[in-house]
Amino acid sequence: MRTQVAIIGAGPAGLFLGHVLTRAGIDNVILERRDASRVLARIRAGVLEAGSADLLRKHGIGARMDAEGLPHDGFSLAFGGRRLRVDLRGLAGASVVVYGQTEITRDLMEARAASGARTVYGAEDVAIEGFEGDAPAVTWREGGVVRRIGCDYVCACDGFHGVGRASAPRATLREHGRAYPFGWLGVLVDAPPADHELLYARHERGFALCSMRSATRSRYYVQVPEGERAQDWSDARFFDELRRRLPDDVAERVTPAPSLEKSVAPLRSFVAEPMRFGRLFLAGDAAHIVPPTGAKGLNLALGDVHYLSEALIARIRDGDETGIDGYSAKALARVWRAERFSWRMTGLMHEFPDETPFERRMKDAEFAELEASRAARAALAENYVGAPL
Ligand code: APR
Ligand code: PHB
After folding, report:
1. Domain spans, the chain
2. Helix/strand/coil for 20
3. Where residue 80 falls among pLDDT bands split at 50, 70, 90?
4. Pocket lining: 44 vs ligand 1, CB cutoff 6 Å
5. CATH of the domain spanning 181-267+351-385, picked from 3.40.1190.20, 3.40.50.1820, 3.30.9.10, 1.10.10.10
């Protein structure tokens, strides 16, 4: 077996990369460890930057997003009884689209099935060979049989725990990051959202977020201590805690309903450098993780794929290597900016177990500056709608 580009992982990064390459006439195979239903069962964030939405449209994958996604011109912060709306359109000239990552994954899976491009689900023990030379290959186990595919390039879009980064040479790979001493407990319910826009709330009991998937489906989160288990939270306990952390008028509009999904996600900031090792490239969560506070994870993955697909197309079609040589630096510049923003938003809006009175005052002052200064709000809005690609 042979292909031009072997892609590991069928999350949004791997599927979108496969989609763009297939449309450009470049043969590719996706190897995914799980089966498709497991991939689609993951509930993750749901805010697309304006540039991400445009990118999906440009590659012919935006129809359902445009029909069912919710354009949002702003969001609000609540901070110890005060409230501030961040007018994204007025301050940054753009809006975001609320459309679940699961739906994007589904749209990409359907487009891939229709294109006839090859995807192997249930690929176990994926291993990468020879990427430091000219003839890389990927091996895996499928129903007890070991298979091998030769290729020109390997793209690891296999998430934080994938084999791509783990295969990178230790002498070259640098890893930076921190874990936060808390997680987000998230609940998905079939009930109308409390508000028409997102609300991020800081409260002395911890952070809370009101988000949504549609006019009839809400997504809520509360900050919980590290190690907390979702099964220890009944729906009643969750909604009680959520409401205590929200401004009264919003709390009154929260409609408790039986949870369709409930899970705890740890919070982490992480960057691996570089994002290229010979003929092996990293994209998406395989290379970097942001805490979800800025809603950047999916957008960074799509941005990486934009740069990487252009670079591979230029190399494979025209023999032009400048794109693949510049990929890592170009992607990382954007990644570090989003890392800083997500880290700062997380710091501002969460209760840290070891927070000193001084640090608390600094956060009060930061919020006061956002209230007082249009320039400060504009900087926040610019980051939230995302840097241009
Ligand atoms: N072999 C094959 N597939 C693997 C392996 C492996 N060794 N390890 C992981 N995978 C698969 C996972 O099962 C998953 O389907 O790779 C895929 C990685 O997908 P994601 O974790 O969704 O990562 P990515 O596509 O980069 O998407 C980034 O996901 O975590 C969120 O916030 C993040 O929204 C962002 C998005
Ligand atoms: C979500 O809807 O899941 C969501 C929205 C905004 C975030 C994080 C998650 O910042």
Report:
1. 5-71+96-177+268-346, 181-267+351-385
2. helix
3. confident
4. yes
5. 3.30.9.10
| pLDDT one-digit tens code per residue, 192-233 | 999 999 999 999 999 999 999 999 999 999 999 999 999 999
Report if pTM > 0.70: yes
Give Cβ neighbours of residue 325 (< 8 Å, ≥ 6 apart). none
Nearest CA to ligand 2 atom 1: 45
Please state, in angstroms and rounded to a whole number, the distance separating the CA atoms of residues 6 and 280: 10
Residue 342 CB–ligand 2 contact under 6 Å: no
Ligand approaching nearest to the C-alpha of 100 = 2
d(CA 48, CA 295): 8
Establish whether residue 213 lines the binding site of ligand 2, counting it when its CB lies within 6 angstroms of any ligand atom: no
Mutate to test the pocket of ligand 2, among 207, 219, 384 (most ligand atoms within 8 A of CB): 219
> Tokens at residue 86, please?
């961040």
For residues 304, 181, 246, 192, the Cα torsion angle rounded to the nearest 10 degrees is 50
